[in-house]
Design brief:
about 260 residues; alpha/beta; Rossmann fold; four-stranded antiparallel sheet
Amino acid sequence: MLELRQVTKKYDGSVIFEDLSLKINKGEIVSILGPSGCSKSTLLQMILGLTDISSGRITYNGADITPVPMRQGGFNYIFQDYVLFPNLNIKQNIEYGLHSNPNVSTQEEVDELIELLDIKAYLNKRIHQLSDGQKQCVTLARTLIMKPKLLLLDEPLSALDGMIKEIIKERIREIVVRYQLTALIVTNDPEEAMTLSDRILLLSDGKVAQFAEPSEIIHNPTNDFATNFILNQLNIKRRNILSLFADGISQADPLN
């Protein structure tokens, strides 16, 4: 279990988070959702030890990891822009971390991940020859062969469109279930959070607006922010989609 206990973060005299307390279970996907500028990525960096906290504690399975660097903690961070090596082919990118930690994964485990992520046909290609969806799969494979305890993803689907996004979502869920990972995913997209997550951490101005399962947020939003940021956006999308299939629908019809 990952736990934040009364965590406060201050920067240049401003309070970013104050007395933030959370519990995230093993094998759970939690989306960190909120508008731009609400410090979602800062929260990930605090958990990773890339950003100091001002007070409080962060624990994993009861052990204090507040001062522990990311690599020692066994956590892994997937950035929005993939951070792949253009001078290496896909196979070399995937296996890069094994040079310094050769016993982390067996070749059979590497091959299993490559099959799972459907990138076997691209192993001899270079990064510039891949689509954004394929690059994201390579990034996931490279990360997962290092067997992280905790997987943190910063807007991993933001550069993807349509069906590719849905395929990657399915693969992330399958990976989390198969390897019993704990995953935290930063996103600005309520629909993405609702369809990918076991629970959603909704942030507003450094505070938790709601932390609950998607169905709970849909049926019982606890405040106006949850209603406006999530439900109104989803309703607008639904209305726009329905308008494609029928003429003369009033704005209120799809929602009531």
